[in-house]
Give the backbone structure.
Amino acid sequence: MSEIETETLFTRIRDREIPADFVYEDDEIMAFRDVNPQAPLHVLVVPKEPIPTVNDLEPRHAELIGRMFLVARDIAREEGVADEGYRLAMNTNAAGGQAVYHIHLHLMGGRQMSWPPG
Ligand code: 5GP
């Protein structure tokens, strides 16, 4: 059981202590371009609340998680990849490839994705 961190890399981006290329922001959700993009379009959709992993989600987060998908869908449309296709992914813990323990939805597009992922 991990302790809930109040400050994460992404809260520092949220609080403008670290610069990022924002593409969306509202009261609960922000989205900015990944600093090390794995595709021509690679945006992270992030709740402002620093929920560490999917394992830490509570029923009260259900609407927030749903809105994160709607934000990702809208960005995919705006960035012109909605029709050709894109990938949404949320890595969880070490074996899932998670590096930043503040949940985030990867939106990747602009190239052909392979399956299964590495
Ligand atoms: P994870 O491996 O936790 O699913 O994904 C973390 C993502 O955050 C990685 O794709 C990584 O490139 C991105 N990232 C790490 N540090 C920064 C940063 O300082 N700024 C931005 N914009 N993205 C970051």
